[in-house]
Design a protein that fits this description.
The complex is a heterodimer of chains A (208) and B (665).
Chain A (H helix, E strand, L loop, with lengths): L7 E7 L6 H10 L12 E10 L2 E10 L6 H4 L8 E7 L3 H5 L1 H12 L9 E6 L10 H10 L5 E3 L8 H24 L1 H21 L1
Parallel strand pairs in A: 1-3, 1-4, 4-5, 5-6
Antiparallel strand pairs in A: 2-3
Chain B lengths: L1 H8 L5 E14 L10 E8 L5 E7 L4 E2 L6 H4 L12 H4 L1 E2 L5 H9 L2 E4 L5 E5 L4 E5 L7 E5 L5 H7 L3 E5 L6 E7 L7 H7 L6 H14 L1 H23 L7 H17 E5 L4 E5 L17 H6 L10 H11 L3 H11 L9 H23 L3 H5 L2 H14 L15 H16 L9 H12 L2 H15 L8 H17 L1 H9 L9 H5 L8 H12 L7 H19 L4 H9 L7 H16 L6 H6 L5 H8 L6 H15 L9 H4 L2 H16 L1
Antiparallel strand pairs in B: 1-2, 1-9, 2-3, 3-6, 4-5, 7-8, 7-11, 8-9, 10-11, 12-13
Classes of the chains: A alpha/beta (208), B alpha+beta (665).
Chain lengths: 208, 665
């Protein structure tokens, strides 16, 4: 069955403008930080090969614009996502409050097969800054309340926890894939039968 | 009545061996100036006595009976009359009912007997052709608006033996007139289906084939079916169809298949011709508007009167960097063109006061006020975030505590006060940065930014309706101009054109260096040659990538990546030139639709016919109105002018002649 596993994982990074989505992606893929990144317009993605449990998988990480009004177009890129990374800035409480709506919006637009178990990961970024405004405890509590979403505190600038976070993202996305396949064995067959029945009925109608 | 007289005037014994339409008469010795710069058709005509003539006929003479013409066949009407068309289809009617008009028009025909032709030359990217029957004098000069003179020259060379002169590769000397091509007629001669001169038939087939494979093949085929149905008697030939002919016909059939689509319906097959665009003219870029010209264009009090002419010049070549500071204020509607220096001084004073009063509105806000004003706070926070990441690699904005960043922020926050409903949207800092870099001055930059935002405000709509609308229009334009690519994109889930979002939102700011974006923007600000020219820029860039995108079978993600990676790898002049070429292709396409006309801001056909509705005028007068409309709508380079510019028609023609021709000459 492992041969049927997808070797490409599509990961979407979401969060308010300026929380560090592009920086996190670049830190993970290119091991670089720059404070000269421009605001993302439209969408872009980077790919990176990672090894998870002795398997080589390609992560395709999608970065979109953070300003709210651009989301109506950003949804075009959500399709087929295997994991969603929600980022907030620990120095800006508003960006933390937005997490809920980012998560809801993603679930509505991407409409994954099993929304309750779709893998999310939350990153509280910019922990290198002094003016922290959202405590780790508060963030963790929120994550627990949302079906135990994994939470990491990161610094894209100083490469803190970035590697670890993305490893978890890849692992959870893969696990989701495997589970989906397990589920598929049964429900799909039943569905297939249902379809067949439907088709037969149609056929009967035609024959009459 | 007029119809019968026209048939007499143009007896069928004279036949057009080759015709090329959209040919502009640029110069002709001994003709009044009023005859020049009109569009017509350049033909090679075989006379009754088998001699041949190069003929140019003004467009108003060549209108076709509209009752025998439907859209698909309209194209055919320019093909030579040697073929098996019903007589009525080829009848020429004149555009007016009055005989004197006709005589005047007839007098404007230019004839050059091929026997007398001494030299000809092809210049300006193969778009200009000059003829001479007397050494040392070029008597006539023509400009090929649609495509170039290559096919015409190829055909002409079939009738005259030429040699290139040593000192000028573009000039041909006629060595021996009236030779016949020996190679291609052989196969058709063997088939012996044509009673006429086989050279001409073959050449009609071959030369027309390139442009109109469908119709040309059908003509040739009708001859072949004659053989099949009527045997040898009807065609006086042997049944021995040579292999070469079979090859030729097979080839033409294949090409026809490529150019047609077959839709199967329940009871019948619908075969439609895939319309193709006319060849793309390559129009060279001009030189930037120089300081000398700019100052010369102003009257003693500093007013600029020839606004359209200035815009034409800027469209052709941009603005010299040294005068951009001045010219941009006009292009961005900060300085009105018709204001004198004194008036501009007063305006600047007023605008400076207005700017600082708006700036004071946010500067004077206390911390407490701000804390209770979340809508302002949110906007301010977005501005601060983006200012710190706008063009920071450019020396003007680089480094910590750069004062230019403060100005950038001040202007954007003042703009929030100027248009609080729109506020600040990502992308605005990209729009402002080059303006501030060039102008250096806070107040000037602000008002120029306001002018630019007025042009593109819909890009920043809350619901993104403006962007969605443009992406749709872009898709429609691409479908018309590059159907193969549009089809590929649609198959790859990319028909929504989202991968062009960044291009459109900030008018290609992220795709070019500061130097190049200044050139591109100033050209786009002229609003020439049509509305939404920036969408044609997109089409031009995509068209250049077409082969890669299709041959590598790129999908949704690869297309996006490829397009994003074009950033900083694009040649602005080449793209502008291509986009202009595509514009001419599109507007001169016979199948141009109202949908495309609306996007490009051209008058629609339905509008123009509705103005004539209700009149039961004879068909000749209908074709007259069409002809007249075309004449008015088609200016220099086949450029369509909308009704606003028609008022300046005289002025525009004059300016275009002076400036644009001067640059091209």
């Amino acid at each position: 069955m492992s041969s049927r596993k997808k070797a490409l994982l599509k990961v979407i990074i979401l969060g308010d403008s300026g929380v560090g989505k592009t920086s996190l992606m670049n830190q993970f893929v290119n091991k670089k930080f720059s404070n000269q990144y421009k605001a993302t317009i439209g969408a872009d993605f980077l790919t990176k090969e990672v090894i998870v449990d002795d398997r080589i998988v390609t992560m395709q990480i999608w970065d979109t614009a953070g300003q709210e009004r651009f989301q109506s177009l950003g949804v075009a890129f959500y399709r087929g996502a295997d994991c969603c990374v929600l980022v907030f800035d620990v120095t800006a409480p508003n960006t933390f409050k937005s997490l809920e709506s980012w998560r809801d919006e993603f679930l509505i637009q991407a409409s994954p097969r099993d929304p309750d178990n779709f893998p999310f990961v939350i990153l509280g970024n910019k922990i290198d800054l002094d003016n922290r405004a959202v405590s780790a405890k508060r963030a963790q509590q929120w994550c627990q309340s949302k079906n135990d979403i994994p939470y990491f505190e990161t610094s894209a600038k100083e490469a803190v926890n970035v590697e670890l976070a993305f490893q978890t993202i890849a692992r959870n996305a893969l696990a989701q894939e495997t589970e989906a396949e397990l589920y598929n064995e049964f429900p799909d067959q039943i569905k297939l039968n249902a379809n067949d029945n439907g088709r037969n009925r149609d056929g009967d109608n035609c024959a009459c | 009545m007029s119809r019968s007289s026209s048939v007499e005037d143009l007896p069928e014994q004279c036949k057009d061996l080759f015709t090329q339409d959209g040919v502009l008469l640029k110069a002709c010795l001994g003709r009044p100036v009023t005859d020049l710069n009109s569009i017509g058709m350049l033909c090679i005509v075989q006379n009754q006595d088998n001699s041949k003539t190069i003929e140019w006929r003004p467009n108003d003479l060549i209108t076709i009976d509209s009752d025998t013409q439907d859209q698909e066949w309209a194209v055919v009407n320019t093909i030579g009359i040697t073929m098996s068309f019903a007589k009525g289809r080829r009848q020429r009617t004149l555009s007016g009912n009055i005989t004197s008009d006709y005589a005047t028009a007839r007098a404007r025909i230019i004839k050059i007997p091929i026997e007398e032709l001494k030299t000809f030359r092809v210049t300006r990217n193969n778009q200009q052709m000059q003829f001479s029957t007397k050494p040392g004098v070029w008597q006539t000069t023509f400009y090929f608006q649609h495509g170039n003179a290559e096919i015409f020259v190829a055909y002409l060379k079939n009738h005259v033996k030429t040699a290139k002169t040593r000192h000028d590769r573009n000039t041909y000397v006629v060595v021996e007139p009236n030779i016949e091509s020996q190679v291609l007629n052989k196969s058709f001669a063997e088939l012996d289906i044509f009673t006429e001169n086989t050279t001409d038939v073959v050449w009609n087939l071959v030369s027309n084939f390139k442009q109109r494979p469908y119709e040309t093949t059908m003509e040739a085929f009708s001859k072949l079916t004659d053989i099949v149905y009527y045997g040898n008697e009807g065609v006086n030939g042997k049944r021995d169809v040579s292999e070469e002919v079979v090859d030729l016909l097979t080839k033409s059939m294949n090409a026809m298949e490529e150019a047609t689509t077959v839709t199967k319906s329940d009871e019948y097959e619908v075969i439609s011709v895939k319309p193709t665009l006319p060849p793309r003219p390559s129009i060279p870029r001009g030189t930037p508007l120089s300081p000398e010209k700019w100052w010369a264009l102003q009257d003693t009090e500093g007013r600029i009167t020839e606004v359209e002419g200035v815009k034409q010049l800027i469209f052709r070549g941009g603005v010299a960097h040294s005068i951009r500071q001045c010219v941009w204020k006009y292009l961005l509607d900060y300085h009105p063109w018709h204001m004198s220096n004194a008036e501009l001084k007063a305006l600047t004073k007023k605008k400076t006061e207005e700017y600082f009063s708006m700036k004071l509105q946010w500067r004077s806000m206390t911390e407490g006020q701000e804390a209770r004003f979340s809508e302002y706070r949110d906007r301010k926070s977005l501005v601060e975030k983006d200012v710190n990441r706008t063009d920071r690699t450019h020396p003007f904005f680089a480094g910590d505590n750069n004062p230019n960043l403060v100005i950038l922020q001040d202007i954007l926050l003042t703009y929030v006060m100027y248009n609080f409903d729109l506020g600040y949207v990502q992308g605005m800092s990209d729009i402002l940065a080059p303006l501030l870099l060039l102008l250096g001055n806070e107040v000037d930059s602000f008002w120029c930014f306001v002018g630019f935002m007025d042009k593109i405000a819909s890009n920043f709509d809350m619901d993104q309706a403006g962007m969605k609308h443009q992406l749709l229009q872009l898709q429609q334009l691409l479908t018309f101009a590059s159907p193969e690519l549009a089809n590929h994109l649609a198959q790859k889930d990319s028909g929504n054109m989202y991968f062009c979002f960044r291009w459109l939102l900030v008018w290609f700011k992220r795709e070019f260096s500061h130097r190049d974006i200044m050139r591109l923007w100033e050209v786009l600000w002229t609003s020439l040659p049509c509305a939404n020219f920036h969408l044609l820029i997109c089409v031009a860039i995509l068209d250049a990538e077409k082969d890669i995108l299709i041959s590598k079978d790129y999908g949704f993600t690869e297309i996006l990546k490829h397009v994003n990676d074009l950033s900083m790898c694009l040649d602005v002049d080449k793209i502008l030139s291509t986009a202009e070429g595509i514009y001419h292709q599109v507007v001169s396409a016979p199948h141009l639709t109202d949908q495309i006309r609306i996007i490009l801001g051209l008058p629609t056909m339905s509008n123009s016919t509705s103005t004539h509705s209700g009149s039961d005028a004879p068909t000749t007068s209908k074709s007259e109105t069409n002809g007249t409309k075309e004449d008015q709508g088609t200016g220099m380079f086949g450029q369509e002018m909308d009704e606003d510019t028609l008022e300046y028609n005289g002025l525009q023609i004059c300016i275009v002649t002076k400036t644009v021709w001067a640059l091209l000459a």
